[in-house]
Design brief:
The complex is a heterodimer of chains A (about 325) and B (about 325). Chain A has about 325 residues and is mostly helical. Chain B contains 12 helices and 12 strands. Classes of the chains: A mainly alpha (about 325), B alpha/beta (about 325). The complex binds adenosine-5'-triphosphate (ATP), iron/sulfur cluster (SF4) and magnesium ion. The site of magnesium ion (MG) has 3 residues of chain B, from helix 2.
Chain lengths: ~325, ~325
């Protein structure tokens, strides 16, 4: 199968996921006691405004028709108006996507930069002092709540030492890097612990494979063996894991963005939940679902590139 | 074919694997445990011959094979190649040894890098030892594929596109690419279907003739070993207990362990299949190799001497050597 048709077929597979998420969001509001129109509108909305919402949602029609209208509105970009921000949901979300995307990507890069080399060092010193030190260090990272790490970093590096700003996003790329350093690091500490563990055992396994031992006996240099034979084969399962943990990463942004006052989707979601801003919650849920699906798709592509066996099916 | 000059001589090879103590062991103040995989292996391999190596699972066959191919470094003992000692300090000689002695593995799945095409695998081998100038590498790869009877379009395929038998052919081609003199085949065909086994083994024997190769053939299938080997070594808990001419050893094994091992193997004659005695007792763990003759706990002829004194491997006739205190007595009995 060519790469293009593979891509297309994988894209088509996103549609059912998308529909399922739409159903959940749709039912979420309808399962609330009382009139969905009241839930979807401001508390101070007039009867006329409520009627307008009822008409748009087709609330007087059968459930199936209502769902149809809902999907139609969403696809045409109309996800309603945020009660909290008094602005179209789509607009609000699009404005904030880059922040969260930046933060997530930043966190992924940091995780790889932290976990990759350390996993190799640990694997090459399997069960040695260095290995044990690295593993116990990450174990602490894994068992500490994200917000606690965030608060620690904030108190010491930002508030006391003033090395980093205590919040915000900045305007230029370098400012983004600077402002988001601590939040990204907070998220990265957790993911890098997972990646480190996985990559370490993958490297140990590959180092043991006959083809690596054979390459060594041929007298190939260490860097060639590690680069050509070990790294690429060890990476396969780690890439999958990284892709799967993207959901974790994003829920991590909820807390982190709030702790660090980063104006992203995560903080917006938390605010929307507290304000019972249903249109915004719906829009954000959908956005997160689409983002996670796209990351899964991307993961599959990288995997197919890394592992030739997967290209078959 | 002459079998006279030993191409490879191994003297008193030892290799122990210390097991990592778990935290639990450390708390209990247990001693560090050591797997004694090789305990003084000595053997000679003659130029052009096939030496079979047989023994129960875990007795150190693969460890010996890997030591010979220098995938493992022995703790003690000497290896001579063409009469010259292969010493760790002489880098150039080591390199030459690494080229002349090539290894092939049992598992066709872990012996090839799943992300490298056959061409990449072969050209890596050719380049490392500067076997050919770069512009001739592709021609040489074509030759090698012919040699192991793989189609030319195999070159640009990845390992997963081949069957187990084809993968082992690729492994043979990889070994042959550097023009070795000795091949170490560790259970080369054990993972394959019987029909495919025959094809690969016959290919190996043909190549041996064509290229004057010396082969160490490690396998647990005794019939196969008998079929391919000129001489056979029987190994038990990391030492050779009997070595000698293949036909003589299979027809009239002298060491009590060899006798038991051959008796335990399924007989060719269906009537005799269940009437022969097999080995009594459990194979001791290589963590805990018995003193004296390692076989004494299971040997029907064991005496007091066997429990305290380790028997040396000694020649009984011009065709073979045996490590047993009572070999002569057993022979006349
Ligand atoms: N790298 C290693 N680390 C620790 N122990 C090892 C290692 N390699 C082998 N051993 C141990 O050494 C002993 C001999 O193993 P070896 O693989 O040489 O046996 P074998 O005769 O090839 O067995 P089989 O027929 O099952 O392949 C076994 O007890 C094995 O567990
Ligand atoms: S030395 Fe003793 S125990 Fe060992 S095989 Fe011979 S008779 Fe048996
Ligand atoms: Mg083995």
């Amino acid at each position: 199968m060519s790469s293009l048709s593979y891509l297309v077929s994988r894209l088509l597979q996103i549609i059912p996921t998308f529909l399922l998420v739409m159903v959940v969001i749709f039912l979420l509001v309808r399962m609330l006691p009382g009139d969905p129109a009241i839930a979807m509108a401001d508390a101070k909305a007039t009867e006329a405004q409520l009627e307008l919402i009822r008409q748009k949602l087709g609330l007087n029609e059968p459930l199936v028709m209502q769902f149809f209208y809902f999907v139609k509105n969403t696809l045409s970009g109309d996800m309603g108006t945020s009660i909290l921000l008094k602005a179209p949901v789509l607009e609000v979300i699009i404005e904030r996507i880059p922040v969260t995307a930046f933060l997530t990507l930043y966190a992924v890069c940091l995780s790889i930069l932290i976990a990759g080399p350390l996993a190799f060092v640990a694997a090459l010193n399997k069960n040695g002092g260095l290995d044990i030190a690295i593993r116990s260090g990450f174990q602490v990272g894994l068992s500490t709540p994200v917000f606690y790490i965030g608060l620690l970093l904030l108190t010491f590096l930002a508030a006391s030492l003033r090395l980093f700003p205590v919040g915000g996003y900045g305007t230029t790329f370098l400012q983004h890097l600077h402002h988001l350093m601590l939040p990204a690091l907070t998220v990265a500490l957790y993911t890098s612990a997972i990646i480190m563990r996985n990559l370490r055992s993958a490297v140990i396994e590959v180092l043991d494979a006959d083809y690596v031992q054979f390459a060594r006996s041929k007298g190939l240099s260490r860097s060639v063996i590690l680069g050509r034979h070990v790294l690429r084969n060890a990476m396969i399962s780690t890439v999958t894991l990284l892709g799967l943990s993207i959901g974790n990463l994003m829920s991590g942004t909820l807390v982190t963005e709030t702790v660090f006052a980063v104006p992203g989707l995560g903080r917006l979601m938390l605010e929307a939940i507290f304000a019972r801003d249903y249109p915004l919650i719906q829009g954000l849920t959908l956005t997160f679902a689409v983002m996670v699906s796209l990351v899964f798709l991307f993961t599959d592509m990288v995997q197919a590139w890394l592992d030739p066996r997967l290209r078959l099916s | 074919m002459t079998y006279e000059a030993p191409v490879l001589e191994v003297e008193d090879l030892h290799l122990h694997f210390p097991l990592k103590r778990t935290l639990f062991d450390a708390i209990q103040r247990k001693q560090k445990r050591i797997v004694k995989a090789l305990n003084g292996v000595s053997l000679e391999v003659k130029r052009g011959e096939t030496l079979g190596i047989v023994g129960e699972s875990g007795c150190g066959k693969s460890t010996l094979a890997r030591c010979l191919a220098r995938l493992y470094e022995a703790d003690a003992g000497k290896i001579h190649y063409d009469g010259q000692e292969v010493a760790a300090k002489d880098a150039a000689a080591l390199r030459e040894y690494n080229r002349k002695v090539q290894m092939m593995f049992q598992d066709p799945y872990s012996s090839l890098n799943p992300r490298m095409t056959v061409r990449q695998v072969l050209s890596e081998a050719l380049r490392v030892h500067n076997m050919r100038p770069p512009e001739q590498i592709n021609d040489r790869i074509a030759e090698l594929l012919d040699l192991v009877r793989l189609p030319q379009d195999a070159a640009d395929k990845l390992p997963y596109e081949f069957s187990g038998g084809q993968r082992q052919r690729i492994a043979i081609a990889r070994a042959l690419s550097v023009e070795p003199e000795v091949l170490v085949a560790d259970e080369l065909v054990s993972a394959l279907d019987v029909s495919v086994q025959a094809q690969v083994v016959n290919l190996l024997l043909e190549l041996q003739d064509k290229l004057d190769l010396t082969i160490l053939f490690v396998a647990h299938d005794l019939r196969l070993v008998r079929h391919v080997s000129h001489r056979v070594a029987v190994i038990y808990l990391g030492t050779i207990v009997e070595i000698g001419d293949s036909e003589q050893l299979f027809n009239a094994p002298k060491h009590p362990y060899s006798k038991a091992l051959l008796a335990a193997a399924p007989s060719l004659d269906p009537d005799k299949r269940h009437t022969r005695p097999s080995i009594s007792g459990e194979l001791p763990s290589p963590l805990n190799v018995p003193k004296g003759c390692a076989f004494h706990a299971r040997c029907p002829h064991a005496s007091g001497q066997c429990q305290s004194e380790t028997p040396r491997l000694r020649a009984l006739d011009e065709l073979g050597k045996v490590a047993c205190h009572h070999a002569e007595a057993l022979l006349s009995a």
